[in-house]
Amino acid sequence: MDGWWSGTWLRPTAIALALASIALVIVNGALTLRIQNAQAVLTQRQQFINQAVQVSRVAQLLVQTIAKTALATKDDALTALLERHGVRLQPGAPAEGAPPEAPK
Question: How many domains does the chain have?
């Protein structure tokens, strides 16, 4: 029974398949580590973006409050400071985000 079924090809084929599977396991592990690192970086960037949005909202509220105070106290120095930084004060105008007044 020489030839195809004799088993002479079986051992080298099994060794080659075992080595290939080990190589694939190593590649899979390396790719998994790389993906985890990329996900960590992406998570940090997303957290930074979320925090920037929150800080922006706080800054906007702070400027609105300062502007209302400047109008209420008629503080010319504070009004000039706000206008120097691009904040235009309009007496009697509703604050941004305030609900519209009901008709009388």
Answer: 1
